[in-house]
Amino acid sequence: MLSFPRSVCLLLATLLCSYLPAGEAEGKPDMPQNLIVTPQGPSIMIMKWSRPSSAEVDHYFVYVEGEDLKDTTIAEYYIWEGLEGCTTYTFGVKTVSSSGSESDPTVADGRTDVSYPPEPQDLHVVNYTYDTVTLAWRKPATQCDIEKYRVTCQEEGSQPAETVVNETTVEVSQLTPETLYTFSVYASTSEGEGPAASISQTTTTAHPPEPQDLHVMNYTYDTVTLAWRKPATQCDIEKYRVICQEEGSQPAETIVNETTVEVSQLTPETLYTFSVYASTSEGEGPAASISQTTTTAGLEDCTNYTFGVKTVSSGESDPAVADGETNVGYPPEPQDLHVMNYTYDTVTLAWRKPATQCDIEKYRVTCQEEGSQPAETVVNETTVEVSQLTPETLYTFSVYASTSEGEGPAASISQTTTTAPGPPQNLVAEGINSSAINVSWSEPNLPPSYYLLTDYHNNIDVRIFGLQFMIVELEPCMTLDITVSSYYEDIEKKFPATTRGKTTVGVPPEPQNCSVDVADNYITVNWEKPKTSCKIETYIVNWTIKKLWGSGEEESNGIETRGLSHTENNPPPYHRYTFEIAASVEGIVGDAISCSGTTLETNAGPPVLVSLVSEEQGEVRVTWEPPAEENGNITHYGIYLNDADDYVKEVSEEVRTTTVTLEACVSVDISVAARNGAVKNDGWGERSEAKNVTPAGDALPEQMDCLQHGPDLLACWLPYSTDCPVSQYNLQWEGHVLWSPGATDSNSTTLGWSRDEICYNIPSIPYTKYTVSLNVGINAGKPITCSSTTPMAAPGPPTLEKLQVENFTISVTWKEPLEKNGIISNYRVEWTDWNGRVDSQVTDKNTFSYQIMENSCGGEVDVTVSAKTTDFDEFGERSPPESVLLVNSISSLTCETTEPGEVALNWELQELNCPVNLYNVTWSFTSLWSEDKGSDSKSLIGNVSSDTLEHLKPYSEVSVAIYVDNSTQPANCTTTTQEEVSDPPTNLRQTANNSHSATVAWDSPESVRGKLSSWHLNWTTENGNLVGEQDVSATIKTFQIEGLSSSWTYVVSVMAVNGAGRGKPSNTNVKTAYVPKETPLGLILGLSIGGGVLLILLAIGGFVVYWKKHQTKPPRPAPFMPNVIDSDNDKLYKRQHQSSANQRFQGEGETIDSGTNRELYPDDNMETEPPNETCNDDDTVNEQFTVPENINNILEEAVDRRLSQQVSSNLDHKAVFNRRPSQLVNIRMNSFEEYNKHSSHPNIAAASEHDRRPSHHESRSRSNMREFGRRPSQQVDLGKPNLMEYGRRPSQQIDVGGHNLNEFGRRPSQQIDEHRPRTMEHGRRFSQQIEPGKQRLGEYGRRPPQQGELGRPNLREYGRRPSQQVDLGRPNLREYGRRPSQQVDLGRPNLREYGRRPSQQIDLGRPNLREYERRSSQQIELKRPRQEEFARRPSQQVGISGRSLPSRAPQQPIPPRLDYGDYTRRPSQQTDIGLPSDRAFMRRPSQQFVMNFEGIKE
């Protein structure tokens, strides 16, 4: 076994990790994340990214795709500069690890911003003439869109003219001939305008165009007079050449200098063509031509003549005659031309037809102002109005008549226009300070409507009605070209006057664009004129000079100049100049602008105080001080040897001493120079005086040899000189292991000097290439080297992986040895079985697995692997042995459920002849009816093939695994245990009841022990007789039992049903509600209680009658409401109508408790006494009522809007409680007759007053005050103040003896009663007040269930009722109607127009019955019969499934009511025949006495 140094062992331990090339062993690093590219202008883009979370980042490589742009950075951002504007680039970034491995790139596209464009390309002249130049160019070299081109044309000494085009060509016209023009073209992007491309061109000399308006002024039989206007040119016309030519003859010509000519000596009745040519100094232009025929000589045109001829001899014969008419000729001038009318800008002319028989086809009228070109118009009449003339101007008007032959001579007249509405007079603009000009003027002869003051150059446009205007916010010395126009609205014309105004001198602003130019021998400061219109007289230039080296002295100076620059010649080197320039106007000095510049550096002087000290090992220490004349910023010092041009060492500016390593024992001269930013000599200054020194040092041997010495390496060398000892030898070696790429073996040592040959044995790794280097001394220089490769050796042990066994076959796998020590050629597998038998197998270098085939089992097999290299004959060290046990296996396994909580296991082995010592059985279970789960295990010893698992959870999925001996591969099976009967349901209870049904509810059993399929219910009598049974779905946990007897107790059993059958029962007793029999209640009471009770009732009734007769106040509001439950709804309604007053009206004679409504609430669990109330009348009658102790629980169940609105789940019909407690029989009256004797209700025989409610009728104790509100109870009553302003209902008014209404709440139930607990909330209704057992709902909501809901905020400040407050589920529509329910709700349409209550609105779940305006209960519902128009509330209607209600009243039909159509408010206010007239006006239909309770039909 070889022994290696510790460093070699560490290298060998990492050989496998270093096998791959650099970067591959560690893999690619992660890519940068979240790359974002953002433009920062037209040429700059910023890349930003996030560091990869799992990568070792050394730096980043950034690049631009398709461009020669790349770089590296260590930051998570990079800035690209010098890009083109409007260009899309693809940017990439890669992560680079410390080993140099690069990740995949992260890329992103980015587009640079719009930039200023460069100048247009290829600007050239396409064509040019004497007055036009056509230019063309190409788009600038940019990717940005060009929005427009601005083209300027400038003649030398004049202002440039410009035009804007969108194309790359333009024609510039109206130029002057023979003139040099400079054309400039500027391109513009959305960012702005770029530089111009310019070109110059001279126009050509102009030949004149043809004369204008050539026409015949007059003609006769032998003359034609022509006239024309000068050609359209700026050139001077030297002459006109006129050509006259008859057809077929030679032309005749004449030369004239005027624009008219008469051509004479022509032949009558002949067609002539006349041509006129204009000539300039450059030549003759084209001709203007016209033709004219001369007239017949001696006769008038268009005239009929009679011609005769006679023969003459000695005498005359009779004449021969004939008629003839002359041809059409040129007409003479019009006759009697005169001015009919004229104004300041119009002249109206009139004339008569020329003296000719010919027809005049038209008249041409010309108007000419002296010195200007004539204007003309053509008319067919003998009158014309010439408009758009200049006031007070002399015009000459000429009228030419034309026949079919041509135009004749003109008739002319002159006329001067009158004075017109004129411009402002005496217009003056005076600068009053440096920022304002006062403009004033006087009125013209005709005052205008107003004045317009404009200065379009400065965007001033003001309408003024006075004679003065102040223009403010101007700049000093600013000149304005001001126009003030008189504007006349009647003629819609303005008359301008112009003037110029200038502001006074002010403090000049600072000069612009200060800059400093620096050269070798001067420094110049430049600036531009300030932005001011004032003329700058001088500039004050002050500057300071600060020395930037040495002690940093400062000095100041200054001058006054008229120019825009100042130069200081031969400034001192490397000094900071700071200039301040201020403008001066008329002695006023403005703010100064500042700019700075630094003079150039010059070469420094020599360093001083240089000293040399020779140290050991060839080192020389050089020390110096800075030069006396630094002349700049010293950045480096250089050490020079002898006369060499280059320094041997360079150090930074702050260093004043350094060491120089030189050749040992060689004498040299050393000098020092300083370097600054000077241009000359690359900044190096003058050297110091040279000083000589001889350094000491070590000498390096000339050669070293690397020799093989067994498995190790031997390095040998001779000293450089036997006479020059060295301080030490430094030997280093580095070996690259050839059998493990990336692995190295490095080390070093030091040796002493010797005159003889020195050899050193280097411990080596087999098959490794070593490079050995040798140098001398402590600060060693370049070494000498040699190299050699060590031989191969036996490799180390391969890495044997875990053995796998299947059917007596052992699978052996391994990996290469960590120490291969060469190139592996073979592997050898050796194994020894439990009988000691040894065997082996040799594989090649590429095989890393082998299968050992055994034919029996029952013991352990030991396996090892070894390796061999190519150049070494023996196999290397064996791997540590691995052992494996050959055991049997299970071929089939079954799981069966035989008994509850048990699973039977049966299996068969793979090999019957191979014994098994141990079975490990594990199992887990998951309950299918609960959250239970778990696991367990056990061991079986011996040769068994079955087992039973016991005490398992019912109806659970069981998974079983069996392991044979030490095998890791189990046999598996899964099954489900049997279901077992369930535990009884929990919390079985009665939730509701009525006279014939009861509702029970229950919760799930604690243990179902199976899949719940249904519930089984049965109910029996208390003695065990089965009444009924029912199976219900497993999804419900409540059931209503129908068909029971009233006031009866039943035993109800509920059982859970699963796959094992019905479970254990849960039992409870239920009781149906009590319903009295048809036997008269009075008779039963009389027989059971006796005469004593009857006497008590009569005494109470007499007392009540006495009290009612002497009572002078209105009925008490809102009597005591008992505590009832849903199951009593139906019974309560029926019993209400069987109250004492009702029964008395029906004629029944039995005696019933009429004072307390006890017959309504006969159950023991219902409170039957009213609250304790004390009422003091005027006649001192006192009545005491006992307040129940549980008054605070009376309204506990009233959680809906009204008690009558509560719906019971076990009612077949909706015979629920009345809407308001006022519908209950009042405790103060024994009958309704007594009620109607109250002072507020006089006997009324008929509905003589057709008010909205009968309570509106006049009463003895109060006047008819119908106007005070919606309900008559709001009217002023004796005994209560008129508080109509405090609410919608009269119950809110203060009543003597009533409740305390300090708060003026909406309903009396909100008032504090001395007989009620005080509720601080004073809520809408008494049921909203805090009671024991109720939580406080401080929102003052409409009803307690509306308070404190999660879905709506507490908005008690909004509106009449809290239900009008903003709810999250509906919008706040306070403005729509009396009640909040009329507001738009998500679940119903907004039907504001359908009445005063929301129930009148169309709902999705019910038909639209708009005719029943007042209440929703009047509308027909799908599930209840139509109750005609009189059904006040849905609770009064009989449902489809409802049965007849037992009644003590005789079952007879209700007679029809009279139709009082004018009582439209509520049908209950209509008079019923079955009622006495004084009871006809009861407020609610529930107060009427119905004789048939089988169904309310009206």
Indicate the topology.
Layout: H1 6-13, E1 33-39, E2 45-50, E3 59-64, E4 69-73, E5 77-80, E6 88-96, E7 106-111, E8 121-128, E9 133-138, E10 148-155, E11 161-165, E12 169-172, E13 180-188, E14 193-202, E15 212-219, E16 224-229, E17 239-246, E18 252-256, E19 260-263, E20 271-280, E21 283-293, E22 304-309, E23 320-325, E24 335-342, E25 347-352, E26 362-369, E27 375-379, E28 383-386, E29 394-402, E30 407-416, E31 425-433, E32 436-442, E33 450-455, E34 460-464, E35 468-471, E36 479-488, E37 493-502, E38 512-518, E39 522-528, E40 538-547, E41 554-561, E42 565-569, E43 575-585, E44 588-598, E45 608-614, E46 619-625, E47 636-641, E48 649-652, E49 657-661, E50 668-675, E51 691-693, E52 704-709, E53 712-717, E54 729-737, E55 744-751, E56 758-762, E57 768-776, E58 784-789, E59 799-800, E60 804-806, E61 809-815, E62 824-832, E63 838-844, E64 849-853, E65 860-869, E66 882-885, E67 890-896, E68 903-909, E69 918-927, E70 933-941, E71 946-949, E72 956-964, E73 971-976, E74 986-993, E75 998-1003, E76 1014-1021, E77 1026-1033, E78 1038-1041, E79 1049-1058, ...
Antiparallel strand pairs: 1-2, 2-5, 3-4, 3-6, 6-7, 8-9, 9-12, 10-11, 10-13, 13-14, 15-16, 16-19, 17-18, 17-20, 20-21, 22-23, 24-25, 25-28, 26-27, 26-29, 29-30, 31-32, 32-35, 33-34, 33-36, 36-37, 38-39, 39-42, 40-41, 40-43, 43-44, 45-46, 46-49, 47-48, 47-50, 50-51, 52-53, 53-56, 54-55, 54-57, ...
